Amino acid sequence: MHRTVWLLLAGLVLVISIPLLLGGGELWRQLADFPPLLLALMIAMIFACWFLNAAKLRVLLAGRSGHLTHRQAMGVVMATEFAICATPGGAGGPLTLIALMKQRGMRPAQTTAVYAVDQMIDLLFFFTSMAALLIYIAIRAIDVRLGWMLGMPMILMATGLALILLLGRYHARAIRAVAGLLRRLRIRHDRRQRLMRRLLIFRNALAETLKMPRHLLLAAFFFGVLHWIVRYSVLYFALYGLGRHLDWGWTFLVQMLSMAAGQLTLLPGGAGGAELSSLAMLTPIVGQHAAAAAILIWRAVTYYFYLIAGAPVFLYLAGRPLMRKVFKIGKQQLED
């Protein structure tokens, strides 16, 4: 079995085992008392997230993939986000999106450009959110250490945004630098030409996407903001259902920092790091049992449900060939 599958299995175990081990016997009682209607609302919120991301995708595609209905766009989003959750660092996400859009006649470079703009929107949202959270921490006189914890991610995001702006302004020089680097690496001339052609197609597709009417780009950003607000409200409702009432801004901060910490584990879905960091931030406020129960519910809705609901959609739209490519499973293993 390939390493990607082993990492996914390890992540699935960690997501459940950490809250169960730290929550103890009291955790089961709290889970049994959790309102079923509230859990149904949280599941509905995930469908709302897919709906909003589908709307953003349709805006960014701007008709380049042919007539894509909203239901079809939701299918693409569900399959792509399944691959993001199931692979280390979410590496399977762009690969899945490229394959699905190729079926609709889009070049890989065009799809990569759309995905890049989508990531820019998310990066801009998280940067502005962290700036707002720093102000929130200062106004509410919350632990200053949290401000320092936000400082490093903000610096990294600011650096990323600055690099994007510089690449946009000096893209011609950057392309010449890449061409020179490929020559120094002694890559064959025909392969070098092929790589540079793909890079130029990507640049043109990215420019085409960014030159969309401003109201469409603002609409895509609006859908992205709504998606993250809904997605990052899940932990708030999980705690609310357990009888713990925290400020929404605090739960937003916990999720943002814990998901950033989860990326350091290099496991699918940030397994392990997300659970431990969120437990460390919530336990002093709501107690260890309630924190463990809330995190188990939160991760079940925002991780396990993405896998359970997204897997059949992924198989239906992408099929076994892409599954083998994403997870690098041999044909014999897949049939077994």
UniProtKB/TrEMBL annotation:
Question: Record's superkingdom?
Answer: Bacteria
* Keywords, sorted A to Z: Cell membrane, Membrane, Transmembrane, Transmembrane helix
Q: Name one GO cellular component term.
A: plasma membrane
Q: Where does it primarily localize?
A: membrane
Q: Where in the cell is it found?
A: Cell membrane
Which Pfam families does the entry mention? LPG_synthase_TM
- Bilayer-crossing residues are 6-25, 37-55, 121-142, 148-167, 216-242, 304-323
What NCBIfam families does this protein map onto? flippase-like domain
> What name does the UniProt record give this protein?
TIGR00374 family protein
Q: In which organism is this protein found?
A: Halotalea alkalilenta
